[in-house]
Structures are given as structure tokens and as C-alpha cells.
Amino acid sequence: MNAPDPHAATRARIADAAEELFRTLGYQKTAVADIARECGMSPANVYRFYASKSAINEAITQRLLGGLSALVEEIAAGPGTAEERLRATMVEMHRRDIALFFSEKRLHDMVTAAMTEHWGVIERFIERVLGAWADLLREGMERGEFARRDPEATALTLKHLTMLWTHPLLIADCLGRGVEPEELQRDQAAALDLVMAGLKAEPC
Amino acid sequence: MNAPDPHAATRARIADAAEELFRTLGYQKTAVADIARECGMSPANVYRFYASKSAINEAITQRLLGGLSALVEEIAAGPGTAEERLRATMVEMHRRDIALFFSEKRLHDMVTAAMTEHWGVIERFIERVLGAWADLLREGMERGEFARRDPEATALTLKHLTMLWTHPLLIADCLGRGVEPEELQRDQAAALDLVMAGLKAEPC
């Protein structure tokens, strides 16, 4: 068993205060001094726990994506056919992304900053989701729901094909052009119909 | 018959000079004065033909996308099965996008500017491509190559699914992260295999 991190509670408290400020003020407009004030401590004390605002963002992004990948794994381990669970993970990830960009527009620049500064965190998230998808595909193939294909390669192809509904840049671009979330969801459902038909069909 | 535009030759000459400068200097760094100098005319004279640098960009983007949609229509009207031609239009569009971003990185900010300032030009391009795809899908369904689905709705779904290989933001993002063009092309081929299997399979 790992020894508990004695600083974990303080780190979480700083991350909570920062996340709240990023949501209300915006990432760019929030200074470490603001975060310190919210926590009732000095900026110097915040810097004992995080080297920079960017490091706080990294912790928040890790927490956010950790929660999302746990949810994906929970759906994957739940009831239903492999197809139903695969679809549900995609629908749920898209729903969360929409919530992030639609209800909480101010988090957008935080996510954008994370995508340039902390790609490693995002890469680990993608790896976990691809792992859950590959398992679901393998299970679906064994049950005879899906035709036989390489599960890992196919999981990667699914990621590429469903980019429009998960990539923050694209979702922000769509919503910025006035596309309604409901339209995006309908488009996703139609696309998943075609993709699932492909997964069931023998490779040509 | 429309009367020929007496200014067409001069407008094309200005657009040629501007495109060359955008390629070598970059869009942001090129001033209307530079374009005028290249054409051996005064800036005031350039403004007789184009209201702004942005209007010159609009004309260049229109020309570039006009050529690309003509190529897509040519492939669609050419020999081969509907599947072969559908794939060829997608492969060719991706190849052109890669060339634009890989060999001619400086055109990137021109395209980005066009995407925010002249969305109408891009929308008309998308409409033409979707029209060509819907025709190919209809033909493939009539020949029994593809299962019956709504051709227009399916063309739109194809656009959504293949976003990664055509959307300038995503291509630039991939190449910026060091993904090799060859890898993108292999990924596209794998994705199109799955999509084509889906188009051939009866809707579930």
C-alpha cells in the first residue's frame, strides 16, 4: 500500500478553488494570487504545492479526465450487448464534452491550454478509452455480435471516425457556428448506426 | 451568355501575386502594398479591384476550393465502381489538404482566416462535395453495391465521419504533433474500409 500523500488534501483544496475560478473568471484571467486568496493562503504557499498555474491546470485536467475514463470503464463493465455499451461510452463522452463547452464556456481556454501544455495527460486518457473499446470489441467478436477484426486497430479507427463528437476543437468550432447540441447528437446517432453496421459486416 | 468581366484578367493577376506572397511571406505578414508592388501598380489601384486583403483571400480560397470541387466531380463522373470513386474523392481531398499544410505551411493562416471570414465560400464547397457524394451513393445503391439508405443524409454522415482527414484544423493539429502524413493516409484507408463495409450492410 502506498503511504497517503500528506499534501493531498491541500492540493485538492487548491485545485477546487482554481477550478471554481477558471469556471467563473476564465483560465487566462485567473492569477495564482486569486487562487491563493480563495484558499486563504499566500501565493508563496500555493507555489509550495504547485510550480505554476499551468501545473494546477494539469491537476484539474487529470482529475476531470480521470473521472471520465472511470465512467467509460464503468459503462463497458455494465449490462447490455457489446454494441449497446460501445455506443453508450461514445454518447456519454460527447454529452460530457457538450456540457463542458456549452454550459461552461469559460472552461474552454483551460482545456485548450491543457491540450497544448499537458498532452501527456490527454494521451493517457485516450489510452484508457481505447483499451476499454478494444475489450468491448473483442467481447463483441467472441459473442458473434461483431465480425472479426483486430480489436486494437479497430478501436483506433473508431476514435478517428468519431473525432467530431469528442475533439474539443471541433465541438467548440461547431457550437461557435451556431450548431445546436441536439443536432450534433442526432448526427452522432446516425454516424454510429453506419459504423455499427460496418462492425457487424465481414471485412470486404 | 454572360458578358465577360472586363476586369477578370487584372483581378486574376492580383490574386496570383497575392497567393505567391501568401505562400512565401505568409498571409498575416503580407500587406496590400506588397501585392501592389508585385503587380507594378499602386495600392489605390489594387483597392479598385478588391476592397481589402480579406477580399483577395476570399477570391483565392474560392479559386482553390473551386478547383478541388471540380476534381471531386471529375472523379465522381469517371470510371470505376461507386465505392472506388467515393474512396478516390476522399483520398484525393486528403492528399490535397496534406500538400497544403505540409509543403506549404505558410498558407495555413490564409486558410484559417478564410474559415473565419469567408465561411460562405467554404459552405458552397461542402455543398458541391456532398452533392457529388450523394450522387455516387445513389448510383451505388441502384447498382446494388451499397444497401439502401437516404443518399443525402448518408453523404452528410460521411462528411462527419471523415472529418479528421479533411478539416484543416485537425490536419494542422495532427501534423503539428508530429504525426506523419503516411500514418494519416494509412489511418484513412483503415477507416474507409470500415465505412464501406457499413455502406454495403443493411441498416440494423
Name some characteristics of this structure.
homodimer; 204 residues; mainly alpha; Arc Repressor Mutant, subunit A; Tetracycline Repressor, domain 2; 2 domains; 10 helices; 75% helix; elongated
Description:
The structure is a homodimer of 204-residue chains. By secondary structure, the first copy, chain A, is an all-alpha fold. The first copy, chain A, has 2 domains: 1-50, Homeodomain-like (Arc Repressor Mutant, subunit A), CATH 1.10.10; 53-200, Tetracycline Repressor, domain 2, CATH 1.10.357.10. In chain A, 75% of the residues lie in helices and 0% in strands. Chain A has helices at 8-24, 32-39, 43-49, 53-76, 82-103, 108-117, 119-142, 151-161, 168-176, 181-200. The longest helix of chain A has 24 residues, at 53-76. In chain A, 31% of the residues are buried. The A-B interface holds A 119, 147, 153-154, 156-157, 160-164, 167, 169-170, 173, 177, 187, 190-191, 193-204 and B 119, 147, 149, 153-154, 156-157, 160-164, 167, 169-170, 173, 177, 187, 190-191, 193-204.
